[in-house]
Hints:
The chain is α/β, with parallel strands linked by helices. The chain is built from 6 helices and 5 strands. Strand 4 and strand 5 (108-113) form a beta hairpin.
Amino acid sequence: MDTNTTSESADGSEALGVETASEPARPVSLADEDALDALVDEADVALVEFYTDGCGICASMEPVLGNVARGVDADVSVGLINPRDDPPLVERFDVRSVPLFVLFVDGEPVARRAEGFVPGDELAAWVDEHAAETGGRSG
C-alpha cells in the first residue's frame, strides 16, 4: 500500500512560531464563574462566548471561534460558557441575548458583541482591533 505524503509535516514540524496550534485554538468549555475568571486571568487576551444549550447560532459559532483563535494577530484564549449554569454571570455581564462575545484584555472586559452569527474574518478583525487598541493604552 502506497502512502501519500501531504502537507502535514510541513505544517506541523516546520511551524516554529506555533505552540501546539490545536490546543490554544480550541475553545475551552467553562463550567462556572471561577473557571471563567481563571481563563481570563491566565490570558493576555481572551474571547468568551456566552451561549445556551439549544441555541443553533451559538453552536454554529464554536468552529468559527477555533478558526478565529488561529487567525488573529493576538495570542488569544477562547472559552465557552453557559450563563444558565451560573446565574450570577447573567447579571455580571448583562447577558440579554446569546451568543454574546466578550473580549478581555489583561483581565478586563474591553468589548462585547451580541449580533447573532458573526463570520470568522469579521470576528477576527474585531478581536485584533480591540486587542491592539487596548494594548496600546496604559489604562
